[in-house]
Design a protein that fits this description.
Mean pLDDT: 79
Low-confidence stretches: none
Helix content: over 70%
Order of helices and strands: HEEHHH
Number of strands: 2
Radius of gyration: 32 Å
Strand content: 5-15%
Structural class: mainly alpha
Distance between the termini: 92 Å
Number of helices: 4
């Protein structure tokens, strides 16, 4: 019966019995099947992505300028690291310090 349901793509949660269709009483099999299909799809995606990445690495290793390319990649990664640290790890200026600077600037503007 499950093979018949697998052949009928229109209603995966229903089974054909004779000429009429009946619903499965429990949806547990459907959920298990969905989970298996999702895991299989993710595994296929991971394998194809890994295959593509390996092909790219092989192509890069065959290049004659691989050492220069590696040096440029290292410089690029260092620059990206600096930018990331500046963006996320920079300590913001102290709030009271900013207020004191604004007050000094106002006093200087009022004195002029």
């Amino acid at each position: 019966m499950l093979e018949e349901a697998a052949r009928d793509r229109r209603r995966p949660d229903a089974l054909w019995v004779g000429k009429s269709m009946t619903r499965e009483t429990g949806r547990r099999r459907g959920l298990d099947e969905q989970a298996v299909l999702l895991v299989a799809g993710l595994a296929d995606l991971a394998v194809s992505t890994l295959d593509s990445a390996v092909g790219t690495v092989r192509g890069l290793l065959r290049r004659s300028d691989a050492t220069e390319l590696a040096a440029q990649a290292e410089q690029d990664l260092m620059a990206r690291g600096r930018l990331a640290l500046d963006r996320y790890a920079a300590v913001p200026p102290a709030h009271l310090e900013i207020l004191a600077r604004h007050a000094l600037a106002r006093r200087a503007a009022d004195d002029v």
